[in-house]
Amino acid sequence: MHDLPDPPGGARMRDVARAAGVSAMTVSRALREPSRVSPEVRARVEAAVREVGYVPNRLAGSLSSRRSDVVGLVVPSLENSLFAATVKGISDVLRREGFQLMIADSLYSPEAEEAAIRAFLEQRVAGLILHDTLHTEATVRMIRRAGVPVVENGTVPAEPLDMVVSYSNREAAKAMTRHLARLGYRRVALVTLPSAANARSRDRRDGFLEALAELGRPQDPRLMLEMPSGLVSGAEALARLMEGAEPPDAIFFAGDVLAAGAVLECQRRGWAVPGKVAIAAFDNVDLLAQLNPPVTTLRLPRHEIGTRSARMLLDRLAGRQSGPAVLDLGFEIIQRAST
Amino acid sequence: MHDLPDPPGGARMRDVARAAGVSAMTVSRALREPSRVSPEVRARVEAAVREVGYVPNRLAGSLSSRRSDVVGLVVPSLENSLFAATVKGISDVLRREGFQLMIADSLYSPEAEEAAIRAFLEQRVAGLILHDTLHTEATVRMIRRAGVPVVENGTVPAEPLDMVVSYSNREAAKAMTRHLARLGYRRVALVTLPSAANARSRDRRDGFLEALAELGRPQDPRLMLEMPSGLVSGAEALARLMEGAEPPDAIFFAGDVLAAGAVLECQRRGWAVPGKVAIAAFDNVDLLAQLNPPVTTLRLPRHEIGTRSARMLLDRLAGRQSGPAVLDLGFEIIQRAST
DNA sequence: ATGGCCGTGGTTAGCGTTACCACGAACCGG
DNA sequence: CCGGTTCGTGGTAACGCTAACCACGGCCAT
Q: Which CATH number fits domain A169-299: 3.40.50.2300, 3.40.50.300, 3.40.640.10, 3.40.47.10?
């Protein structure tokens, strides 16, 4: 909280009004509903605005009108480029509609998310977009009480808070697992991010297991691994899985850039991919297409999740849409040379 | 701009006051300066806050106090992970100090930046952090008039608006060019991002040329190329440079992931790096360390730029620091196997 | 002509908070 | 034991804007 040096240049609406020879109310109208003001007055007001360098005070405006044009967004991490695509999609839509974006990271912690959401509600955001679907009880209560519309993004949750725009992590993992089986791989391993604080990881693991069950294959704990995020981590996962007694013939890296790290490690070890082991990834980062070999992966509508989330939120705010809604945007398998 | 559904759950300060049996003013104090209120009253107020589910309205608070706890940040792109590190640094500091982050992308356009800044000033942000140093005249006027503190980040500008936290793109490019010369490379090529709307690219080119001049080497236009961002683009740059009559023996990719794209292309073509051609990059993205061979690059203090920028801004807001200041955080060469 | 109605602009009363000042009660040294 | 601090609290007036009325003049239809 700190000083707002308005004083010297801070022209207020009444200064504009004086300069234009009208009342403050007319200035307000000329700015927000130009059609309700005569053309001459409108021109005088516009000239006066430029003359005095007026910058409207939305704090005052929002307080008075009880509306806000700020949307709060919480992502698990600001550094992960996967979320960046979604953020970009959100921002694109908000900009066009004249909304502002307030952003915070939850660090994958529901408590940190709660703090961020509380701060957003204090700023009286018009709506929230949350990239995690796991919330504390206090968070849910707070949001309900505030009556603010919410879009959740990370996966398709069992009990949506309000609106949802996502793809299904479970279905995506299941589809890729089946795909690998169809290609003839018999021992498919799964590497996920730590599932403890990450519902998406759990969903992917569930999808993987479901596919195995459908295929009538046994679960083999030696073929499942949790690894932290990062290229190095992917290389290590590869090493660990391959040095076992019955190594996998295919590895599905269900997260982040793990798969890329593994492919690069295969290069170093001189292992043929998919000759020695096939590798599949979860997210279509462009690096995967450029690796040697290019990596089979899923195309997830990251950017569209952003645009549709923002649009859905704004529709609700504009009263164009009413109830909760769940939008599953699906996914697509991109078969490349690595499998 | 849309409806703020305060009504049902929207407890105001006076509701808390009533529940606690004190005046609204006392509630305000209990919340902001607990030490100035007796322990019993403080406890009653805290209980009342929980009881009625009170969420302070910072719009009203800021309007009244003429302070704000929101910082506006403009980055060129929300998708580029290079900026993500800086954003993260900023966010980390702001969170700890109880500030909020409003973010927008300029798309590398000064006009879009102007629009974003105007919107931020309308929201009465306490300060601005700008990742570009190229601004329209109107932008400069607006910021000056608003009297809001600003930190610029992208490079060390000729005429700082206010405060600056950065490394010098020119010095960094110069250092890497000298480094390559020292390693014995005779024909060093430079690939930059399009310099038209990107002051950083120009700075890097200037640094490169300065180094050549110091080394007494001629400029060779066939050894300079501008390419858009991306891995594919790096591969193409490599191809173009190498198919010339007198190809370079080293290429300095001064931006983004171009270098990575080039190394991957070399793998595909079976070209030894650095046997056939040496490759150096500009930014220390972790991919570069994992490629085969690992790529020589610069370590730039991206995260620290964020933390220091935020801290400098908050120091100014707290009156702990006064004048403009330029902080050059330097860089470091990481020599790896690719050169 | 005259009543009503639109199109325009002004007036008033907040929005929910904080700054500022006032006030009474304890407290304290001379 | 009394004038002056200090401490804790409350009242009031903004902060800059907008919602909701209200006023006024001109215009048409009857």
A: 3.40.50.2300
